[in-house]
Amino acid sequence: xxxxxxxxxxxxxxxxxxxxxxxxxxxxxxxxxxxxxxxxxxxxxxxxxxxxxxxxxxxxxxxxxxxxxxxxxxxxxxxxxxxxxxxxxxxxxxxxxxxxxxxxxxxxxxxxxxx
Length: 115
Hints:
The protein has a single domain (7-112), classed as Alpha-Beta Plaits. 21% of the residues lie in helices and 32% in strands. The chain has two helices and four strands; from the N terminus they run E-H-E-E-H-E. Helix 1 (21-30) runs antiparallel to helix 2. The two termini are 15 Å apart. GO terms for molecular function: hydrolase activity. It comes from Lineolata rhizophorae.
């Protein structure tokens, strides 16, 4: 198979309160994230690490945690997973935004190069 025929791979990374992690993982996995191609046929794969997020909600916001103008520090989980194909990462991000409890979910998408 030529490299041009191999779908692009992306890493989706997001940050979420631990209590909302299961619903977010279910949403992104239903959208096709977390599948590793190949003979192993692995699905629902991800890596999570605990940490702390910090934010100050601005005026006119309706934060899930805290109140506008007050600095908050909360326990969160960083979750990373593989998305094969631009359509899969786009659908996974859309699913994440629907499932995530925050007004503005923090997430990152990186294209993975094949060497």
